[in-house]
Amino acid sequence: MLSLLKRIFTGESGLEQMMPAVRGQVVANAPLNKMTWLGVGGPAEILFTPADIDDLEYFLANQPNVPLTVIGGGSNLLIRDGGIPGVVVHLSKTFDTIRVEEDKIICGAGAKNMEIARVAMEAGLSGFEFLCGIPGTFGGSIRMNAGAHGRSTSDVLEELTAFDVIGKKIVMQKNEVPFDYRSNSLPGNWIFTGAVLKGTPENKENIQKRMAEYRQIREKAQPIGARTAGSIFKNPIGLKAWQLIEKAGCRGLKHGGAMISEKHCNFFINTGKATAQDFETLGETVQKRVFDTSEIMLEWEVRRIGVKTKRFSSFGGR
Question: What digits encode the pLDDT tens for the residues 91-128?
């Protein structure tokens, strides 16, 4: 087994040749930077895009026991410059379905948050308005327990469907999911494929008005149009990360091509030529300065994955 791993990760034997025969796309050394909102990061050793859910299940049941990483819309993601060893799974458009059944919304994990909010509004279902300002897909929202305006993904989720790394299907009810603030403690390599969400019937015009208000707040407070990854750090209990960052004198701070937004201190911007290391170094600088001024260690909200140098030498680089 050890000699096999050595061959895989030192390039002596191509991992691509070890992949099961699937109907979806399997690409070796696939660029990932354009799949993220920050626009940085190295390649996937293997990028697998399943044709559909059956294709995904077959792949997982027959994959050669290598690290699996799942990426969604790439809006809250920092891929390190060395890339990601093993297999990166990216769900295709067949996973972006959305349909309404009475007060429920049944969606695929690849469905965009903003589209879920729009469909719910058209159906006269409230409770999903907060999603209109959250970029990315609902699978990522489950993983991060994404939220805004006092609401979180855990508030609307009724049921989720996922697969583990060996292709076992898992269905969990809301009360079984260990949600926390901007996170959950489910295994990181589970692949969410779908969800059932519950809303509350309400007048469409009222829902539409709230969504418009949320969009205005977002446009006023956040650097819309810039290459960002949303909030970089979680808000400490009872506090705002951006206020702590501003207090530490970090507004507008730069490192390489990465810069802290002048508009919102908890947003980092790619000014054009940033690397993932630029963002991590900038973030670590902010953490130190905030701790020095407030004795609070900010916790990363952005998901950081991959290795710093392109040498897929062990499973530990995830």
Answer: 989 999 999 999 999 999 999 999 999 999 999 999 99
Mean pLDDT, rounded, for 193-200: 98
Triad 143, 238, 173: Cα angle to 5°: 30
Among 80, 182, 227, 289, the active-site one is 182
Token pair of 58, please?
Answer: 């077959």
- Looking at 141, 231, 289, 303, which residue is catalytic? 231
Query: What's the mean per-residue pLDDT of the chain?
Result: 92
Candidates 220, 204, 59; CA nearest to 122 is 204
What residue segments make up the domains of the chain, in order of their start? Answer: 2-93, 96-219, 227-296
Q: Do domains 2-93 and 96-219 have the same CATH topology?
A: no
What is the token pair recorded at 191? 């692949």
Question: How would CATH label the architecture of 227-296?
Answer: Alpha-Beta Complex (3.90)
Q: How far apart are CA 6 and CA 13, in angstroms?
A: 9
Q: Is the pTM of this model over 0.85?
A: yes
The helix/strand/coil state of 125 is strand
Active site residue 182: yes
What CATH number belongs to 96-219? 3.30.465.10
Token readout for 200 is 């509350």
176 is catalytic: no
Distance between CA atoms of residues 41 and 44, nearest Å: 9
Contact 35, 74 (CB under 8 A): yes
* 2-93 is a CATH 3.90.78.10 domain: no
What 8-state DSSP symbol labels residue 96? -
Strand partners, 204: none
> What does the pLDDT read at residue 11?
45
